[in-house]
Amino acid sequence: MARPRLLPDNLTLALIATVITASLLPCSGSVAEVFHWATTFAIGMLFFLHGAKLSREAVLAGFLHWRLHLLVLCCTFVLFPLLGLALKPLLSPLVTPQLYLGILFLCALPATVQSAIAFTSLARGNIPAAVCSASASTMIGIFLTPLLVQLMLGVQGSNGGLDAIGKIVLQLFVPFVAGQLARRWIGRWVDAHKGSLKFFDQGSILLVVYTAFSEAVIQGLWQSIPLPALVGLLVCCCILLALSLGMTTLLARKLGFSREDEITIVFCGSKKSLASGVPMANVLFASSAVGAIILPVMLFHQIQLMVCAVLAQRYARRSETPAMETKAANAPL
């Protein structure tokens, strides 16, 4: 039986179920302490596997395309934060102050890896360059995201500064580098079991979300976020995504990139990582604030998946049309 087109992906359904479970049955006391340690371990393993999955050959294949990578990184770490700050008069009245901090945190995050590459492939873009850009965004984000959070949020929500970077390096970057070093021995096994390891990736995210929302619910999360603010958050995420997609497309065309490179720039430069965002929020913010901070990340994640899936199919159809016309023109009379 075919999956209904309007039905969200399995991860989104699992996230919704996790939030509902945490809202009705939040963990507390000694159980919460166990979940905290389990979360720390899961985050470390998540980034270890990210490092082990990353093919150095694929990265080197796209590394020399520096103009594309520079544009993607500027869109991710410059354009998005500037949009978040510049649009404050428009976005801030739509949500609560805590949700707006979550929007700024969203703007500081690195790009996705798996979905950006998948959509680039579906749209027939420059796949090696997408692998390189998305992977570089993740690694650079480990250092740059805490600094951007500190700059944009100041002392309002961040544990920030060098202490935050140290925690990020210890919990995320060190496991990532260890995974890269271990790829020499476990790379084939990881490549052969990508489908199974995907469940560990998603399970780690769900564990962090449950732990964060449990703490937030106990602290009165849902009492502090009215329904109009949730609707306003949906509008904010749609505005940010529409502007990022439009501006990455415009910049790619104005700077003379090919159609394949444009596709890579659009899908790598307009996306934000849930897989990196949830663990980073867990490190950067007080546990009572994490639930509200990651709400914008979770909502933006789902919207970008649905919109980019449609956009990738449109790009793919445009790529097919010239090829079909060329084939028809060369056909014998």
Give me some keywords for this one.
Na+/H+ antiporter like fold, 83% helix, globular
Give the biggest sheet: none
- Could you estimate the helical fraction of the residues in percent? over 70%
Structural class: mainly alpha
Series of H and E elements: HHHHHHHHHHHHHHH
Beta fraction: under 5%
- Quick one: overall form? globular
Number of discrete domains: 1
At CATH's second level, what is the architecture? Up-down Bundle
Overall mean confidence score, pLDDT: 83
Separation, N- and C-terminal Cα atoms: 44 Å
Number of helices: 15
- Rg calculated over all Cα atoms: 20 Å
CATH class assignment: Mainly Alpha
Transmembrane segments: 34-52, 64-87, 99-122, 129-152, 164-182, 203-222, 228-252, 280-300
InterPro entries: Na+/solute_symporter_sf (IPR038770), Put_Na-Bile_cotransptr (IPR016833)
Keywords: Membrane, Transmembrane, Transmembrane helix
Protein name: Solute carrier family 10 (Sodium/bile acid cotransporter), member 7
Report what the structure shows:
The chain is mostly helical. The protein has a single domain, classed as Na+/H+ antiporter like fold (Up-down Bundle). The chain is built from 15 helices and no strands. About 0% of the residues have low confidence. Keywords: Membrane, Transmembrane, Transmembrane helix. This is Solute carrier family 10 (Sodium/bile acid cotransporter), member 7. InterPro entries: Na+/solute_symporter_sf, Put_Na-Bile_cotransptr. It comes from Pseudomonas kuykendallii. Pfam families: SBF_like.
In short, what is this structure?
The chain crosses the membrane at residues 34-52, 64-87, 99-122, 129-152, 164-182, 203-222, 228-252, 280-300. By secondary structure, the chain is mainly alpha-helical.
